[in-house]
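Quarterly update from the structural biology core.
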Amino acid sequence: MKLLIIEDDSSLREIMLRALKGEGYVVETASTFFEAEDKIAGYSYDCIMLDIMLPDGNGLRLLEHIKSLGKEDRVIIISARDSLDDKIEGLNLGADDYLPKPFYMAELSARIKSVLRRGTASVNNIMKAGNISLDITSRRTTIDNKEVPLLKKEFDILLYFMQRPNHIVDKAILAEAVWGDHIDMADNFQFIYAQIKNLRKKLADAGADTNIKAVYGFGYKFTDNEK
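Predicted structure, tokenized:
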């Protein structure tokens, strides 16, 4: 799961970053309206934490921009302005939740999990595709009710594809989604190829009826084996 924190307070931003990374999320940050706008234009996020009061713009206008792009990123507004008008406007613009400052990290974590459950339409945090089942909370993978051990990044890759069935995913977007900002320092995508190769083999060996298929010249697609 990939998150974006849009917050100009450096101390709070760092606290949120460390706490959410500690829970296993891939987390990126932005401290200004324009930095956030640039990240949102280039990438998709499972959930965005959005501060209303940014030094170079209003977070609500950024929320409008996100929705105008047709993105499905979940958005939680975090703001020191515990104003009913702001809350109503934010929710009307399409925010999924509104969390006033100050807040406890445990509450933020619970809010994120809540909106992610809505976003993935999972039941009890379980995602299914064919005979594959992922427990997002325990990070457990089963095929025909038999557990299949996956490494952390293999699980993250499989989850990313299961959230986008039959969608062609570019390898660069996949790499950035699973590894985060520092992927820009990589010289090539050999590590992606290796991770996907290993994951595909594990799924096939376990008898999965759905797998990750290469689409020449474009990337990868998660689809039924007969397609």
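The chain has two domains: 2-120, 126-224.
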